[in-house]
Amino acid sequence: MTLVDSRAAISVGPLRTVPNYITAVRTVAAVTVGIAALVAGSVAFMAVAYGIYWIGDMLDGWVARRLGQETRAGAVLDIVSDRACTSVLCVGLVSLVPDVAVVALVFLLSFLVLDTMLSLSFLCWPVLSPNHFHLVDRRVWALNWSPLAKAANTAGVIGAIAFGQYLLALAVAVAVVVVKLWSVAAVARLLDRDGRA
Fold first, then answer.
1. Coiled-coil region(s) at which residues (predicted)?
2. What is the band of 10 on the pLDDT scale with cuts at 50, 70, 90?
C-alpha cells in the first residue's frame, strides 16, 4: 500500500521492523569498515565498505516491500543512514585518493543538502517514502528516486571514480546538481500548488 491515511501520515510508524534492523546493521558495518579502510590506508577495504552500504541499502528496501513493513519512520531512518554512510565513505575516499577531492566536494554538497531536502519532502504528502513520490509528481520521482535515477546519482559518480575517470565523475556530479536544483524548484511549486508551503 503506497498511500497512507492522514492519521498514519503524522505517526512515526513502528521502528522495530526487520528492514530497520538491516538499515542499522548495514550503517554500522559500512561506517566501521570505512574507518578501518582509512586507518589501514586501503582502497580495497573502502570498496568493501561501499559494497556493504549499497547491498544493505538495496536489501533493506527490498525486505520492507517484501514483508509489508515499509513505514515513514523507516524511510527517514534510511535517508539519515545513507547520509552517515556517504559522509564517512566519501571523506575516507578523498583521504585515500586525494585527486577526487573536487568531485567529492560537489557530490557531498549535492547529496547532503539538496538531496536530503528533496528526499525528506515526501513527508509533506501522505505517501510512505520518496519511492512513492510518483503519486505526487512523476517527473520529480523519475529524476530522483526511480531505479535509474538512484543508480546515476551515486553509482555513476563512484563508478567513474573507480575507473579513474575523474573528469567524467565531476561531469556526472555537476549534472546531478543541476537535476537537484531543478527538482527543488519543482517541489517548491508543488508545495505552493497543494497549499503545503
1. none
2. low
- In 68-165, where does DSSP find H-type helix? 72-96, 101-109, 116-120, 138-144, 147-150, 156-162
Residues forming a β-bridge with 3: 127
State the cell numbers at 95. Answer: 583521504
Give the predicted TM-score (pTM) of the model.
0.89
Task: Based on the fold, state whether residues 112 and 195 are members of the same structural domain.
Answer: yes
What tens digit of pLDDT does each residue of 150-164 get? 887 888 888 899 899
Q: Same domain, yes or no, for 108 and 140?
A: yes
Count: domains in the chain: 2
Rounded to an integer, what distance in angstroms lies between the CA atom of residue 58 and that of residue 91? 22
- pLDDT one-digit tens code per residue, 22-36: 999 999 999 999 999
